[in-house]
């Protein structure tokens, strides 16, 4: 998830409760292909309209049961309707897909729903079914010959278990609240609980989402708001997004709008009578973004915002951060550090995304180290205190959970992938000095925008950018069983 526990770093106590342009997508051009006089003309779709959603999917070794390297989803068009009284989600998902291999069928992650019509390139397909957590459509596809899959479905959403021992563990995916609302967090997976998805980080795609809700209710999704007609709320992502970074929240929300740096549109969604205490912290978003832009360059998306949900956790969902509204004990300073952490992920994790979950450290190490730097700017503790704390925490976590470069599937997003790589970045910062270190971080996120990266590409980038060989330093911190000297 990048779901983070609401937390504050208390260096004085040597302890940490780690927190974890609006331009529309062009309409596809549909020219008529030439055909012999005896054959009917066939409409051809120009898939270049969704080229920005092209990825190079790879199989995820940590969770191989989710996602596939055989398909590259270019674009999701989700038309959804939610009925709180019957707890029924009705949807039509239209996916523009580039197969990466010949296959006799299309297979995607999908939680069981009742299927309606299923079509491929407009032709009805019989025999489509949901088996376990897979949608199987018996339609042959060829490598690099894009197809359009459309699926009608309806039913009651259900969550899937979270593979972690964290203190804030909650089921993943679309969750129904007591009053009939919805919210979701879905890292490392869970998007498949509300739409057919290639639910893995290496397949980023564009999105158009429309959600119809009852009068008096609001629907919030990741991406850029593109208007409301009646009780239908619409969102569009023109920057590609991994499925775990999508979000959906439905409830009786109130909206506050604001402006961030260089007039960046910001939107805060909260529930009246429930979340007012969080508003002052949310309204500090422009300051958080200014802190980050000063070090890493322009915010990478056309809009930003926060939605509060009925959770104890938080998540860096793209352009619309999903934050829990029920911390066990509310501490404004700790909440704001978590918000800063999630905003940092818009650069580290959202814009530049790891190819597989083995490299979660690449997200969490940067966001955690930046969170420490932000706290240092507020609390004025020394570099020596930070160094001592990180090394002590690193030693304890490696002994308990192992090195951050080899995470265990049952221990997703536990503290070793946060603090241990943050300690490595502290060593890199010390070796380079602030000017070169922040130049490195800025170059990484600005030149690799909207891509998927891994350990090897990061090391190669660091070495080229700095003109020095940091391979041993980085690998030691990612692989060693004990804290490197």
Automatic annotation (TrEMBL):
* Cofactor names: Zn(2+)
Q: Which reaction does it catalyse?
A: Release of an N-terminal amino acid, Xaa-|-Yaa- from a peptide, amide or arylamide. Xaa is preferably Ala, but may be most amino acids including Pro (slow action). When a terminal hydrophobic residue is followed by a prolyl residue, the two may be released as an intact Xaa-Pro dipeptide
Q: Which Gene3D superfamilies match?
A: Neutral Protease Domain 2, tricorn interacting facor f3 domain
Supply the name of the protein: Aminopeptidase N
Keywords assigned: Hydrolase, Metal-binding, Metalloprotease, Protease, Signal, Zinc
Q: What is its EC number?
A: 3.4.11.2
Q: Where is the composition biased (Low complexity)?
A: 30-40
Reading the lineage from the top rank, the first entry is Bacteria
């Amino acid at each position: 998830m990048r779901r983070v526990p609401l937390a504050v770093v208390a260096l004085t106590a040597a302890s940490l409760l780690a927190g974890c342009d609006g331009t529309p997508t062009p309409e596809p051009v549909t020219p008529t292909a030439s055909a012999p006089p005896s054959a009917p003309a066939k409409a051809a779709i120009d898939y270049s309209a969704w080229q920005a959603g092209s990825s190079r999917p790879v199989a995820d070794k940590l969770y191989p049961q989710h996602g596939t390297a055989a398909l590259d989803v270019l674009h999701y068009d989700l038309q959804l309707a939610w009925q709180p009284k019957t707890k029924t989600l009705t949807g039509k998902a239209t996916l523009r897909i580039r197969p990466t291999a010949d296959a006799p069928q299309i297979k995607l992650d999908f939680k069981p729903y009742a299927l309606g019509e299923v079509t491929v390139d407009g032709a009805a397909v019989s025999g489509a079914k949901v088996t376990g957590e897979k949608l199987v459509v018996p339609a042959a596809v060829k490598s690099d010959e894009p197809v359009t899959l459309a699926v009608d479905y309806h039913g009651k959403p259900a969550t899937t278990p979270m593979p972690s021992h964290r203190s804030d563990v909650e089921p993943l995916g679309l969750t129904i609240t007591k009053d009939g609302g919805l919210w979701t967090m879905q890292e490392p997976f869970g998007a498949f609980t509300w739409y057919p998805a290639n639910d893995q980080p290496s397949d980023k795609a564009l999105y158009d989402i429309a959600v119809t809700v009852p009068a008096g209710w609001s629907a919030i999704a990741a991406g850029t708001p593109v208007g409301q007609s009646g009780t239908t709320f619409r969102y569009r992502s023109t920057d590609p997004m991994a499925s775990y970074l999508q979000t959906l929240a439905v409830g009786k929300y109130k909206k506050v709008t604001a402006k961030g740096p260089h007039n960046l549109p910001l939107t805060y969604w909260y529930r009246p009578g429930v979340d007012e205490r969080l508003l002052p912290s949310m309204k500090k978003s422009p300051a958080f973004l200014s802190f980050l832009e000063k070090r890493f360059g322009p915010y990478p998306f056309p809009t930003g915002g926060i939605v509060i949900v009925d959770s104890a956790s938080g998540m860096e969902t793209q352009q619309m951060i999903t934050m829990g509204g029920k911390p066990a004990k509310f501490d404004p300073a700790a909440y704001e550090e978590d918000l800063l952490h999630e905003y940092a992920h818009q650069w580290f994790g959202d814009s530049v995304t790891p190819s597989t979950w083995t490299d979660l450290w690449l997200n969490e190490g940067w966001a955690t180290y930046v969170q420490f730097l932000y706290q240092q700017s507020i609390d004025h503790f020394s570099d020596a205190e930070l160094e001592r704390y990180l090394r002590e925490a690193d030693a304890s976590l490696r002994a308990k959970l192992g090195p951050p470069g080899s995470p265990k599937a049952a221990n997703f997003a536990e503290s070793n992938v946060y603090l241990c790589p943050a300690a490595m970045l502290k060593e890199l910062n010390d070796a380079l000095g602030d000017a070169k270190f922040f130049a490195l971080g800025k170059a990484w996120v600005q030149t690799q925008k909207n891509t998927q990266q891994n350990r090897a590409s990061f090391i190669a980038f660091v070495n080229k950018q700095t003109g020095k060989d940091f391979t041993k330093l980085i690998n030691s911190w990612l692989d060693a069983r004990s804290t490197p000297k």
